[in-house]
Amino acid sequence: xxxxxxxxxxxxxxxxxxxxxxxxxxxxxxxxxxxxxxxxxxxxxxxxxxxxxxxxxxxxxxxxxxxxxxxxxxxxxxxxxxxxxxxxxxxxxxxxxxxxxxxxxxxxxxxxxxxxxxxxxxxxxxxxxxxxxxxxxxxxxxxxxxxxxxxxxxxxxxxxxxxxxxxxxxxxxxxxxxxxxxxxxxxxxxxxxxxxxxxxxxxxxxxxxxxxxxxxxxxxxxxxxxxxxxxxxxxxxxxxxxxxxxxxxxxxxxxxxxxxxxxxx
Length: 265
Hints:
CATH architecture: Sandwich
CATH class: Mainly Beta
Shape: globular
Strand order of the largest sheet: 1-7-4-9-2
Number of helices: 6
Strand content: 15-25%
CATH superfamily: q2cbj1_9rhob like domain
Order of helices and strands: HEHHHHEEEEEEEEH
Largest sheet: 5 strands, antiparallel
Distance between the termini: 32 Å
Structural class: alpha+beta
Radius of gyration: 17 Å
Number of domains: 1
CATH topology: Jelly Rolls
């Protein structure tokens, strides 16, 4: 199933209300083909050259001094993706005009890997304010179909206060009220309220196809958010050096919206 989605222009009030109620929004084909076709080989490089492994290893140093030799946002198309104008316009409609980039993950998930149990990805802020939004943009470069697998979400679960892994004991099993997103064209994006419970399910039969997947998260300003990478300062500084935000998004890579890294989950 693929839920209906708005166009690429500014969101209406009704569309924003639906996102706030359900916790998700599907944007089929949000990424134009020229951008998508540049992202795919960058993901291949990220995985095949061990850059993803370097990034994971750097997270083992809680001081943040051991930043990886290359950051994902230094890959040109990845940097472009972070500030893709239709994406940021949609986020503005959901979050408001002032938000900050939180983190970026990129992967080529092999067909044989198991699914990921039910979980959410919201990080705390120093005001413990649940009304401040954190949004994850899940980019499916090759789309979703029976060869790639699916994403299941539990609408409305973002309004509960639960731990990230509090539903993990369900594995990837079907839950009452879930919505399964299993048909998306290449270059599609799913926006999640980061507190929404969701699960990744593998292709049900056969060898399957790799899932080219990039997720980036953004936080509403108004409190200081906990970072998830110890080298978060280097990441934001490099984004500023590269001029990724431009004049229109002055808060996008500002350090003042974060607490210190604690390493807790």
